[in-house]
Design brief:
It contains 6 helices and no strands. With about 140 residues, it is mainly alpha-helical. It has one domain. Helix 2 runs antiparallel to helix 3 and helix 5 runs parallel beside helix 6. The longest helix has 16 residues. The chain starts with a helix and ends in a 6-residue tail after the last helix.
Length: about 140
C-alpha cells in the first residue's frame, strides 16, 4: 500500500515538476498567518489533469480513517494545484465535516480557481462549517 502511494505521488510530482508558473491563491493566510502549503507565485504549474485527479482520489480513498485521508489529501494538493470541482470530490471522501473543513482550508492556498470557493457549500453537512471555512480563507467574509 505504501509503495503504491509512493509511486502515485512520485508520478504526480514528476508531472508537476515540469511546469513553470501558477497564480495560486492569496499569498497569506487569514490574520497574516499561513495555513497551507507555500503559495506558488513565480512558477507556473497547471491545474492537475484528470489522470492526476484519479490518482489522488484513489490514494485518498484507499485510507480507512479520516486522519490518514487528510494526510494524503494534503500531500496531493501540496504537489499539484486542483480546481474547486476536484477539491469537492476529494472532500466528499471524508466522513466528517471537521476533516473536510481542515482539508479545504489547507487546499485553498494552492487552488487554481479560488474565486469559486463559494461553490463548496454543498460539500458540508452543516452550514456553520462552510462559514468557518470561508472565514478562514476569505478575511472579511460575513455569515
Amino acid at each position: 500500500m505504501k509503495r503504491y502511494f509512493l509511486v502515485c505521488m512520485m508520478a504526480m510530482l514528476a508531472v508537476v515538476g515540469m511546469a513553470q508558473h501558477h497564480h495560486g491563491g492569496p499569498g497569506k493566510g487569514p490574520k497574516g498567518g499561513h495555513h497551507g502549503p507555500a503559495p506558488r507565485q513565480e512558477v507556473y504549474i497547471p491545474c492537475a489533469n484528470a489522470d492526476q485527479m484519479g490518482m489522488a482520489l484513489r490514494a485518498i480513498e484507499s485510507q480507512s480513517f479520516d486522519d490518514k485521508k487528510l494526510e494524503i489529501a494534503k500531500l496531493c494538493v501540496a504537489l499539484a494545484p486542483f480546481e474547486v470541482r476536484d477539491l469537492a470530490r476529494m472532500a466528499a471522501v471524508f466522513s466528517f465535516d471537521d476533516k473536510r473543513k481542515e482539508f479545504l482550508i489547507y487546499a485553498y492556498y494552492t487552488c487554481c480557481d479560488p474565486e469559486n470557493y463559494y461553490m463548496l457549500k454543498e460539500s458540508f453537512s452543516f452550514r456553520s462549517n462552510f462559514d468557518e471555512m470561508m472565514e478562514a480563507t476569505h478575511p472579511g467574509y460575513q455569515r
